[in-house]
Amino acid sequence: MQLEKYTIDELNHQQAKKHQWRFNGVAADISNIDDVLKKLGVFNIAIPSWALGTGGTRFGRFSGGGEPRSLEEKIEDVGLIHALNKSSNAISLHIPWDIPKNAVAIKALAAQHGLHFDAVNSNTFQDQKDQKLSYKFGSLHHIDKAVRKQAIEHNIEVIKYGRQLESKAISVWLSDGSNFPGQLNFRKAFQNTLESLEEIYAALPDDWKIWVEYKPYEPNFYSTTIGDWGQSYLLANKLGAKASTLVDLGHHLQGTNIEQIVSLLLMEGKLAGFHFNDSKYGDDDLTVGSINPYQLFLIFNELVEGMDAKGMDHATSIGWMIDASHNVKDPIEDLLQSVQAIKIAYAQALLVDKTALVTAQNNNDVTLAQEILQQAYRTDVRPLVAEASLRNGGTLDPIGAFRKLNIRGNLIKERGLKTVATGL
Ligand SMILES: [Mn+2]
């Protein structure tokens, strides 16, 4: 299914008057409105191939209707998301869940939807059917060199698939860790991980990056070998310039000041990018902005400030990606909501009066500093996000359009009610 431009124009036309009135109200107060709209217009967030099917929990999975049955249909779904919001022009593949059998055809199909391929993701946290050795006790950190070798080879194979699709990065998340004290020698586990990563690093093409993701617990509950940003940063530093740290918002213990981590990684040139989601308790993979939108804004505030300080391009110098998966929502609606939440937080961060904030900080005017941040956060920027989408040929209201155009109903007609996407 591909959306026709006129259907989107027609929906926008119906809402044009109301939108214009709301937009004019907000825009009147923003001195750099053209700059804000321009930046919002080029800002894209990649969609992971595993988020297009209904997610499961360890207790089960309730599949929705019309789920994509193949990589081709997943690309089609991302194409629909991008047609609606004009902010999701890339797809991030997970290997082996989504192996491109014919890379040329897959690339052509993606291009037809205006999409390209973001980072590829390896998987050594599960055993696959035809796999010789088990990852039960870890992969890149394993005590057995043969297991490490198998995991290294898998990562190199993922790079090979990524090259065919013109991806430029591999992101590595390891579940390696231990469940009980005494199970592991921490130093040995770290050293093995480093040596394994060095071999993968050596196989990177010149223009590629490796992104090292961290997570404090789950599936292991005593230690994780790359458990926090310090451990990831240590590895990235030892590996070299092509390695950096990937921040997944759900991979922090409660109360962690993620915005401070982001600020320092950015300062050190070691912030690879993001896996966006939201959480209440742990790695909940909830819709971005659904629980703590203020935290998301504070993170974007650090990102904008930090990138501007280094003259970095907001849209392209960092990897922006969603990593979430739902068991109760329509996956496309969930992704549309997530992208909107990210763009809202980004727009708010662009509105922060930086000159006034620096002055307040230099004067230790704590009250004013808070006022300045919250002035931006409390601005209803939704008409700005809508206007940027409109100017790019997208919809003013992506979720409303998804429902009005009965996209899920049409996908069910095409694919059937009982479909199960590959993934978690
Ligand atoms: Mn992640």
Characterization of the model:
Strands 6-7-9-11-12-13 form a six-stranded parallel beta sheet, covered by helices on one side. The radius of gyration is 22 Å and the shape is globular. Helix 8 (258-267) links the parallel strand 11 (243-248) and strand 12 (271-276). It is of the alpha/beta class and 424 residues long. It is built from 15 helices and 13 strands. The structure holds manganese (II) ion.
Counting DSSP H or I runs of 4 or more residues, the number of helices is 15
Q: Strand count, sense and closure of the main sheet?
A: 6 strands, parallel
What small molecules does this complex bind? manganese (II) ion
Beta-strand percentage range: 5-15%
Shape: globular
In which range does the helix fraction lie?
40-55%
**Structural class, please?**
alpha/beta
Order of strands in the sheet with most strands: 6-7-9-11-12-13
Q: How are helices and strands ordered from N to C?
A: HHEEEHEHEEHEEHEEHEHEHEHHHHHH
CATH fold assignment: TIM Barrel
The total beta strand count reads 13
Low-confidence stretches: none
The H-level CATH homologous superfamily, spelled out, is Divalent-metal-dependent TIM barrel enzymes
Distance between the termini: 25 Å
Q: How many domains in all?
A: 1
* Average pLDDT number: 96
Q: Name the CATH architecture.
A: Alpha-Beta Barrel
The CATH class, by name, is: Alpha Beta
Radius of gyration: 22 Å
